[in-house]
Specification:
By secondary structure, this protein is α/β, with parallel strands linked by helices. The protein contains nine helices and ten strands. GO terms for molecular function: Atg12 activating enzyme activity; Atg8 activating enzyme activity.
Length: 306
């Protein structure tokens, strides 16, 4: 109290004060009556809304300070399909969320192994217990823990591959349509069918693959003047446009993952040693390759020719 300023005020109460509402801030007319205005702060204090606001603020600052052409609506409405929920899939999903992508679907039929949490950023030891949870569902659950506003879906499904037997009950499974597809699987043959489907549907397709101390990040699928652009647009003068081929409609197309193959894809995992059945790679390569794949997609979305 010794540090406080204490005073007394003597107020004279006017006659009939109970019948009149004082002319003070906070009272508003409602159907002819002066009533207090109530404001609910529940929405502004909701953790999910706060997380969305904080995530969007970073992107808005990027657009304000350094990248005025950044199209945030194109990113937030983009629907991405990730084939493979392993080391690359986990990293790509997190990078997409950081760029404002909210619609992510992961496809994988594997289970989380004891060696996975150290290399795959969306899994913990709890996901490995009791035989391991399915990677697709565990990854989606983790994404929602990280960012509750993400619209993520996990599909437990095997990808038919050349040289691998396919059960009759699996032949009816079909992938949903998405705007962009990431090929992030371990084997080369697992990318064969998705590549053909993406080429047929004219979808932007991103490939990321790892070696021990090397990696590949590649874009294929739809090229300039695809279905999203007018085929009568002015032809680009870049060397990439000059090297591209035309489809039946005269539109420029890019090569697919297997265009330069001379050997058909076969089973590369059966009857192989452990190091040949999985990706033995330097730990730092997966984040680098994943980041480059996502940055490449963002660059494509902002290209003048689409």
């Amino acid at each position: 109290m010794s540090l406080s300023l204490v005073g007394e005020a003597l107020l004279t109460v006017p006659q009939g004060w109970k019948d009149a509402v004082p002319n003070a801030v906070g009272w508003e007319l409602n159907k002819g009556r002066k009533v207090p205005r109530c404001i609910s702060l529940a929405q502004s204090m909701d953790p999910t809304r706060l997380a969305v606001s904080a995530a969007d603020l970073n992107l808005k600052l990027m657009r304000w300070r350094a990248l005025p052409s950044l199209d945030l609506s194109a990113l937030s409405s983009l629907k991405c399909l990730l084939l493979g929920a392993g080391t690359l899939g986990c990293q790509v999903a997190r990078m997409l969320m950081a760029w404002g992508v909210r619609k992510i679907t992961l496809v994988d039929n594997g289970r989380v192994a004891m060696s996975n949490p150290l290399r795959k950023s969306l899994y913990t030891l709890d996901n490995c217990l009791n035989g391991g949870e399915f990677k697709a569902t565990a990854a989606v659950e983790s994404l929602k823990w990280i960012f509750p506003a993400v619209e993520a879906e996990g599909i437990v499904m095997a990808i038919p591959m050349p040289g691998h037997p396919v059960n009759s009950e699996e032949q009816e499974n079909v992938l949903d349509a998405h705007d962009a597809v990431f090929l992030l699987t371990d084997t080369r043959e697992s990318r064969w069918l998705p590549t053909l489907l993406c080429a047929n549907a004219i979808k932007i397709t991103m490939t990321a693959a790892l070696g021990f101390e090397s990696f590949l990040v590649m874009r294929h699928g739809a090229g300039p003047f695809s279905s999203a652009c007018d085929s009568s647009a002015e032809t680009a003068s870049s060397s990439s446009a000059d090297l591209s081929v035309n489809d039946a409609n005269g539109k420029h197309r890019l090569g697919c993952y297997f265009c330069n193959d001379v050997v058909a894809p076969t089973d590369s995992t059966s009857n192989r040693t452990l190091d040949q059945q999985c990706s033995v790679t330097r730990p730092g390569l997966a984040p680098i390759a994943s980041a480059l794949a996502v940055e490449l997609l963002v660059g494509i979305l902002h290209h003048p020719q689409g």
